[in-house]
Amino acid sequence: MTSLGRSSAMIAAGTLASRVTGLVRSIVLIAAVGSFGNASDAFTAANQLPNNIFMIISTGVLTAVIVPQIVRWSAREDGGASHISKFMTLGGVLLAGASVLAMILVWPLIWLYGARFDPDTIALAVAFAYWCLPQIFFYGMFALLGETLNARRVFGPYAWAPIVNNIVSIAGFGVFIAVFGGHQSSLAQWTTADGGWNLPKVALLGGVATLGIVAQMFVLLFFWRRTGLSIRPDFRWRGMGLREVGSLTSWTFLMMVIGQLVSMYQQSTISDASGQASVTVWFTSWLVFMLPYSVIVLSIGTPYFTQLSEHAAAGRDDEVRADIGRAIRMLGLLCVLATAAVMAAAAPVARIFTENGEQAVEASLVLIGFLIGLVPLAVQFVVQRTFYAYGDTRTPFWFTVFQGVLSVTFATASILVFSTDELRPYLTAAVATGQSLSSTAQVVLATWLLRRRLGPLGLGVSLRALLRFALAALPAAGAGVGVYLLCGGAGGWMLDGIAQAIAGCILIGGATALVYVVALAVLRSPELKSVTQLIRARLRR
C-alpha cells in the first residue's frame, strides 16, 4: 500500500500540475480566439479530431489491453522486450496510416462533428484540421510509450509530460496574440486577405497546437531507460500473440467506435448553438470537469489498476474485491467533495474561460451538467477496469452501447426542446446533463454485471460510505453557494474579471471543503481518518 500511495501521490502531483498549466493554456487560447464565436468553435472542432482518436487509444485499446498484456509479457526471459518492440512498431505503422487517412477524409470528418455549422465555419475548421491532424500519430505514440511506462511501474513521466505541451502552447498562443491581436472569435470574413482568417493565422494557431503534442511525446523518450527495456523496430509480428490481442481489442475498438459516434452526434447537436455556449464551451467545461477527475480518479485509479491486474492474473479474486471496495471509497470521498465545491463555484470557474459575467453564467450550466456525472464516472472507472483486468472487453462493450443509446436519446430530446431562439443558449447544458444521466445508468448496469461474474462484491460498505459523503456534501455545497451569494452572486465582484473569479473560487472552495471535513467528522467517517493519516505521513516526510 505504501508503494501504491507513493505512486498515486506522484501521479496526482504531475496530473495536477499538467491540468493547472492546461487551464492556463486554455485561458491564453481563449484570450486569442474567445469562447463564444464561430472562429473559436471552428478551431476547437478541428483540434478535437486528433484528441478524439487519442481518447480511443489511451482509454480504449491501450488501457484495456496493454497494461495486462505487458504484465504477462514481463514474466518472459527478456522482460517482454521482444514483444513490446513488435507492438511499438505495429502501433507506429497503424498510427501513421490513421493520420494520413484522416487528412484525406478531413471534409467529411469536420462535417460529422459540426453538421450544423454554417459553410464558412466548416471551411475554416477544415483549414485548421490540416494543421492539427498530424497530432494523431504523436498522441498515439505518446499513449503507447506512457501506458508501457505505467505497466512497468514507472508512473510519473506520463502524468508530467503534458506540462511541456502546455508550456509550448502557452508560448505559441502568446505569440499569436502579439502578432495578430486577441479575441478573434468571429469569422470576420474567412478570406485570404489581410485582416481575415488568412493562412498565416491558421498555420500559427494550428501549428502551435501540434508542436506541443510533438514535444510531450519526446519527453517520454528521456525516461524510457527506467523501464529496463531495449526496443527496436521489428516488423516480424507473427508469433507475438496478435490473435489474443486482437480478440481483446476488437471489443474495445467497437466500444470506442460507439463512443465516437455518440460524441459526433452530441457535437453535431450542439453546433446548432454556435456563437453561443456551443462547441468551445462544451470542451472547455469538459476540461474543467477533467481536472478533478484526472487528479483524483486517474492518479489513484491507475496504480490500483496495475495492482488489480496482478491480482486478477494470479486468480486472487478476494483481493480483487478488496481492491474494488477500497478504490471506490477513496475515489468517492474526494470526488463528492470536488463535485460540491466546483458546482458551488461554477459561475466563477466559468468566468475564467469567458469574456464577461453573462457568458460565465451560461457556461456554468454546462459545467454543472457534466459534474452530475463525476462520482458515477469514478465508480465506472473501477468497475470497467476490473473487467479489463480479467481480459473481458466484451461486457464493457455492451454496457457502453447501453450508455450510448441513452446519450443519443437525451441529445435528441434536447435539440427538440431547446431549438428555439429563446432556449438555444441552454442546448449545450441539456446535452451535458443527458451525458451524465446516461453515465449514471451505465454504472448501475455495469456493477450488476460485474457482480454476476465475481459473485457478491461486498459493496455495502462502499455504498454506505458514499451515502455519508453525500450527506456531508449537502451543507458543504450550501456553504459554498452562501459565500457566492453574499459576494453578490451573478452581479457580484466574482464575475468582474479573471483574477476576481480565481479569488472567488478559492473562497468558495475553501468554505465547501471546511464544512465537508467537519460534517464527515461529525458522521465519524472512517475514510476521513484514513485520508488524514496519509496526509500527516506525507507532511512528516
Index terms:
0% strand, mainly alpha, single chain
SSE topology sketch:
Elements: H1 2-33, H2 38-73, H3 81-104, H4 106-113, H5 119-132, H6 135-151, H7 156-160, H8 162-180, H9 199-222, H10 242-270, H11 279-313, H12 317-344, H13 346-351, H14 357-371, H15 374-389, H16 394-417, H17 427-454, H18 460-486, H19 498-522, H20 526-540
Membrane topology: Multi-pass membrane protein
Subcellular location: Cell membrane
GO biological process, one term: regulation of cell shape
Please tell me about this protein's structure.
The protein has 541 residues and is mostly helical. Helix content is 79%, strand content 0%. The chain contains 20 helices and no strands. It has helices at 2-33, 38-73, 81-104, 106-113, 119-132, 135-151, 156-160, 162-180, 199-222, 242-270, 279-313, 317-344, 346-351, 357-371, 374-389, 394-417, 427-454, 460-486, 498-522, 526-540. Helix 2 runs parallel beside helix 11 (279-313) and helix 12 crosses helix 19 (498-522). The longest helix is centred in the N-terminal third of the chain and has 36 residues, at 38-73. It starts with a helix and ends with a helix. The mean pLDDT is 82. The chain crosses the membrane at residues 12-33, 53-75, 87-110, 122-146, 158-182, 202-224, 245-266, 286-306, 327-353, 365-383, 395-420, 426-450, 471-495, 501-523.
